[in-house]
Design goal:
Blueprint lengths: L25 H4 L20 E5 L1 H4 L4 H10 L4 H19 L8 E5 L5
Antiparallel strand pairs: 1-2
Amino acid sequence: MYRPPRVWLAEADVPGLAMSRSIGDEVSQTVGVISIPEIVEHEIANEDLFFVWASDGVWEFLSNEQAAEIVLKHQNNLQEAAQTLVEKSCDIWKKEEEVIDDITTVILQMRTSK
């Protein structure tokens, strides 16, 4: 199962934070989180069907590929695709943890598959 990297404050009894960088957050920088964003340019291509933006509550237990499969299955109804992605994430959280992290997703459809 996919688990994103987490940072922890050794002297505090708080959950680890699933992040690799945080702009302007001085506390997270003390545990190795960098403030410089990683920027990856992607030229939109004819093959691109959709883009998925989601909070760490989605990515905690789902890989990019799993999320893409869910959205592709429901690509003709983006509301249903987003709802299914959120529900699947929530179901996995309930099985794996006592609490559920924030689960938010936005899907932008570029085109439908043939």
